[in-house]
Amino acid sequence: MPWDRNQMAERAAQELEDGMYVNLGIGIPTLVANYVGDKDITLQSENGMLGMGPFPYEGEEDPDLINAGKQTITELARTSYFDSATSFGMIRGGKIAAAILGAMEVSEKGDLANWMIPGKLVKGMGGAMDLVAGVGRVIVVMDHTNKHGETKVLKECTLPLTGKGVVDLIITNFGVLEVAHKGLHILELAPGVTREEMIAATGATIV
After folding, report:
1. N or C: which terminal CB in the chain sees fewer CB atoms within 10 Å?
2. Helix and strand element counts for the chain (H, E)
3. Which pairs count as long-range contacts for 92-95, CB under 8 Å and 24+ apart, including other chains?
4. Which active-site residues does the annotation give?
5. Secondary structure element (H or E) that encloses residue 10, with its range
6. pLDDT tens digits along 144-194
7. Which of 179, 177, 178, 202 is nearest to 190 (CA)?
8. pTM attached to this predicted model
9. Which domains does the chain show, CATH number per domain?
């Protein structure tokens, strides 16, 4: 059985180490906050928050406390707040160790397309372009195929790029792929997924 959204988020949380400052993108990456456990991880949100807690229980939501994806979240005893200029100063200044982002497409070279589909209304790129240029490590968490069953892991991206050669690790419902010099390495397969199934569902070069 391929991983579900929560299992993908849980696997992404395993990549984080004590002391890291980490930015979570919208979509599946926001679920990573629920799986940090007792690791000393500080989550940053580009709308001006350092130290995000997990999602609130139903009935305990504070409508004034949201992440960059407009979802209600919780604060911690150590949470700090600041304006978005300071937030992007952290990102552009290399202070954030890792970003966990969603994607529409990723190429075998680590190119990332995650901000628009031509012809569809978009709100804008948001912080994604700054994040992929400024953080130490970029981890993409996404479904391996789109709703039409077409692969999202390609030799070349077809959608407008957010960044070139920026992705280090790809976690999908099929498993974990590392961006290497001449293609992608399979690091891990989801339970029940075979190497052949992973290769068949991937448009990129597997080395």
Report:
1. N
2. 4, 12
3. 92/130, 92/133, 92/134, 93/134, 94/134, 94/135, 94/136, 95/21
4. 46
5. helix 5-13
6. 999 999 999 999 999 999 999 999 999 999 999 999 999 999 999 999 999
7. 177
8. 0.94
9. 5-200 (3.40.1080.10)
